[in-house]
Inverse folding.
């Protein structure tokens, strides 16, 4: 039996009286393309925060490739193989595209402690940064400052940064958010072209993208998993239709 | 260490704490509401002090009329300042806030030196304030009792204002979330101006009352900057009760230590600062600062 | 990035050329120019902390003063070789920075501001009270400074001091440049740009900040030590809030994050202050205050960011900086 890439057991996150994540038990197979959908306020962002360690869970467990990461900080979980992208771009806007990736690589390899040698001279890092940009087809824009990029392009850099830490599980928080629909297909195409050894979990609102790119879908409502299944199963589920469409 | 000495120093400390409360409450609310770090807030207290000196010594107004005038005038100055300059700073970075407010503090201090000179100022207190008042076990002056009373009255007024009125409800809403508040029709901009002015008014009042207890010279804002910021940090921003408790605690602690262990008296305050920031990063009231 | 290297070499050459010119043209002002070099070193150390690691400190003079007092105290006890006491000063300042770092780097921006302010006053009070060591409010001048490496004696005209401080500035310039162009420098830049992101890529944020704080403290100590050595005098104001505020101001006005900008800011500030504050300290204070208040609106990125600010003006937008996501 293969170990799940990521799984949670009764994961709960409470803010005072308010329960944002309510006993979520989720398991995602290695290499899966798993979508989490749900109406606004369902707790998707809170779930991401609890999974990544940005916020400590009130109770429950999170395991990444069999390792219990519940007590680990966000930084430690990154080094355990769990990375994320943000719904609103969190880039280093004052730097160039390749510098953004290089930064992530320095942290991954812990070469960020070196202060006596030039960053430029780390040629292996630069090469790897360029090849990562190649994965999202942005390598031709490597030296461009972030401020000159279009929003969709910045989304791709956002993804490349997350890939730089060599995650085994990558959580994409609304990767196509804010991007014009002409470009969102493109972004998803580049996402699904990512190597199979990276497990992808994406939070998404756009149903057409979800049904096209996800292999399995979990539906989150009011902090709880309503149901889970393949796109066809979810599409035909009466309960889901009622939650989303009101009938 | 006798009981009488302890009580006397205690009352000194409480009076000091009351003054700190009056002076710092504006800073606390400004920080919580507008997220504006105003290192020059002490200048309002100083302004109130100098205004008091001018009104009493030059215009020969009575103590109480001067106090009222100082409260209103400093409040007006604060209001004008907010509407002209401060409001352009919201949303700027912390660096900009600090830079601007240091500049403001310099300007205020320089103006005070130019107009009044670097020496200490003094005013004549009404007779009943200077005379001693005896309690079983200790002796104090009417002046200190007045300060204590003023502090408690200010606390009640401010608490009632912020927790029992519509104005207060609006301010608390805006502190929680500016965007949400303005989206439900709360006139956030006007709220900012009024609260800033109110904070300045109380600071001015505190400064005026402080002349005979703490002294007044152009270095006043700087001298009390750290302890003012401590009141805000310990009390939690935008918390009336928090600021009050923190101010009284700090005032009393400072007085007691300075009196009983003068060699290390000044350090205690800073040690308290460090300890508070390590263990209570969210302040006594637990709000995000 | 090669453009940047050229930039650095050009700026450094410019600094040396100006220094040489000043030596020749204004031989009577060597004392002032020595001070300018030292203050520029101090400003560079501060910019490493604020312009790169993004930590706002209003108590950085602690390390400057510690460096100065280390030299003086060692001097009164017979240790007078300047290079040795310089190194000792850096070590003392660095160690103290290491002790204070855990408190400073944890917490949000406001807490950090308050803590650094508090520490500044704390050290000032401590130095004031420890009169037997520090000379209290009178300061110390009874210590001796030997010739550098046994060869270069500090002469009355201040020539040795001048070259010594220029050498110090060049060294500091190079050190700060090296640090900021290294992988660690990238990490610091990342911290300043987007701390949230740094956590999400697994960066040890507090550790980075602590290291930056120690480095910055050690370099500030070096600057302070040089001041003590070249002026043969230390006093409490080397630790005080005034000095912390000054370095904060000159870095902001010069352009934080820009090495040449900071040096220029430090030089201009020190020169003007020397000229004006002796005439009338209160009008100097008024003037600085007004300039600071204006600069937030007119020159938000300092002199070094003038080009950027002008571009924004031309683009029709207000030259304001929006707040970055902090914490």
């Amino acid at each position: 039996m293969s170990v799940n890439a990521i799984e949670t057991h009764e994961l709960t996150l409470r803010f005072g009286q308010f329960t944002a994540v309510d006993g979520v038990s989720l398991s995602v197979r290695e290499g899966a393309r798993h979508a989490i959908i749900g109406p606004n306020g369902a707790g998707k962002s809170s779930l991401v925060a609890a999974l990544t360690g940005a916020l400590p869970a009130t109770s429950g467990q999170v395991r990444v490739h069999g390792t219990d990461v519940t007590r680990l900080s966000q930084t430690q979980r990154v080094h355990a193989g769990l990375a994320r992208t943000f719904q609103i771009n969190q880039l280093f806007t004052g730097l160039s595209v390749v510098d953004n990736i290089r930064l992530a690589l320095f942290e991954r390899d812990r070469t960020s402690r070196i202060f006596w040698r030039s960053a430029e001279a780390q040629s292996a890092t630069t090469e790897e940064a360029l090849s990562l940009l190649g994965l999202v087809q942005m390598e031709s824009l490597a030296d461009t400052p972030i401020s000159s990029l279009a929003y969709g392009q910045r989304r791709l850099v956002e993804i490349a940064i997350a890939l730089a830490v060599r995650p085994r599980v990558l959580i994409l928080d609304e990767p196509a958010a804010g991007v014009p629909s002409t470009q969102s297909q493109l972004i998803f195409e580049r996402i699904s072209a990512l190597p199979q050894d990276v497990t992808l979990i994406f939070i998404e609102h756009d149903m057409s993208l979800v049904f096209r790119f996800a292999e399995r879908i979990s539906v989150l409502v009011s902090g709880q998993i309503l149901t889970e299944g393949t796109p066809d199963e979810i599409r035909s589920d009466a309960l889901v239709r009622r939650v989303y469409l009101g009938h | 260490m006798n009981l009488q000495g302890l009580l006397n120093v205690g009352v000194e400390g409480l009076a000091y704490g009351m003054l700190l409360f009056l002076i710092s409450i504006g800073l606390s609310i400004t920080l919580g509401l507008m997220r504006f770090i105003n290192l020059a807030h002490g200048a309002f207290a100083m302004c109130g002090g100098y205004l008091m000196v001018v009104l009493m010594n030059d215009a020969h107004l009575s103590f109480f009329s001067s106090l009222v005038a100082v409260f209103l005038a400093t409040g007006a100055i604060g209001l004008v300042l907010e509407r002209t300059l401060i409001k352009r700073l919201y949303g700027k970075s912390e660096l900009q806030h600090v830079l601007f407010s240091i500049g403001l503090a310099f300007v205020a201090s320089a103006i005070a030196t130019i107009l009044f000179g670097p020496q200490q100022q003094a005013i004549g207190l009404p007779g009943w304030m200077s005379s001693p008042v005896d309690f079983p076990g200790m002796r104090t002056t009417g002046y200190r009792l007045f300060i204590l009373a003023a502090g408690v009255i200010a606390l009640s007024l401010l608490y009632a204002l912020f927790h029992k009125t519509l104005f207060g409800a609006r301010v608390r809403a805006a502190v929680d979330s500016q965007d949400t508040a303005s989206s439900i029709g709360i006139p956030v901009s006007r709220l900012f101006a009024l609260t800033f002015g109110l904070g300045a008014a109380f600071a001015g009042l505190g400064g005026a009352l402080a002349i005979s207890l703490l002294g007044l010279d152009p270095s006043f804002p700087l001298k009390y900057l750290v302890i003012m910021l401590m009141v805000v940090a310990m009390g939690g921003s935008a918390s009336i009760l928090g600021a009050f408790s923190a101010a009284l605690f700090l005032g009393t602690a400072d007085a007691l230590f300075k009196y009983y262990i003068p060699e290390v008296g000044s350090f205690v305050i800073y040690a308290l600062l460090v300890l508070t920031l390590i263990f209570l990063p969210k302040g006594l009231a637990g709000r995000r600062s | 990035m090669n453009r940047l290297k050229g930039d650095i070499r050009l700026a450094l050459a410019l600094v040396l050329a100006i220094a040489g010119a000043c030596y020749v043209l204004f031989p009577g002002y060597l004392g002032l120019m020595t001070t300018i070099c030292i203050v520029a070193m101090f400003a560079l150390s501060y910019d490493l902390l604020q312009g790169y690691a993004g930590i706002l400190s209003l108590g950085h003079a602690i390390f400057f003063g510690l460096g100065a007092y280390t030299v003086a105290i060692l001097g009164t006890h017979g240790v007078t070789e300047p290079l040795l006491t310089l190194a000792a000063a850096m070590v003392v300042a660095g160690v103290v920075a290491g002790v204070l770092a855990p408190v400073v780097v944890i917490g949000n921006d406001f807490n950090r501001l308050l803590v650094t302010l508090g520490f500044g006053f704390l050290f000032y009070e401590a130095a004031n009270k420890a009169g037997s060591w520090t000379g209290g409010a009178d300061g110390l001048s009874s210590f001796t400074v030997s010739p550098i490496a046994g060869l270069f004696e500090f002469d009355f005209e201040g020539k040795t001091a001048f070259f010594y401080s220029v050498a110090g500035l060049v060294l500091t310039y190079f050190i700060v440049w090296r640090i900021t162009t290294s992988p660690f420098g990238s990490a610091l830049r990342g911290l300043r740009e987007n701390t949230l992101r740094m956590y999400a890529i697994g960066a040890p944020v507090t550790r980075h900040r602590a290291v930056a704080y120690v480095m910055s403290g050690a370099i500030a100590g070096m600057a302070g030590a040089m001041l003590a050595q070249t002026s043969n005098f230390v006093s409490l104001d080397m630790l005080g809030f005034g000095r912390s505020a000054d370095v904060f101001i000159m870095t902001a006005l010069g352009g934080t994050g820009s090495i040449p900008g900071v040096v220029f800011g430090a030089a201009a500030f020190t020169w003007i202050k020397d000229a004006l504050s002796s005439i009338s300290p209160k009008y100097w204070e008024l003037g600085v205050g007004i300039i600071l208040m204006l600069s937030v609106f007119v020159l938000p990125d300092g002199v070094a960011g003038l080009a950027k600010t002008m571009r924004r003006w031309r683009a029709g937008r207000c030259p304001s900086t929006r707040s970055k996501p902090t914490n």
About this structure: Chain B has one domain: 3-117+139-279. Residues 284-289 of chain B have pLDDT under 50 and may be disordered. Residues 3-117+139-279 of chain B form one domain.
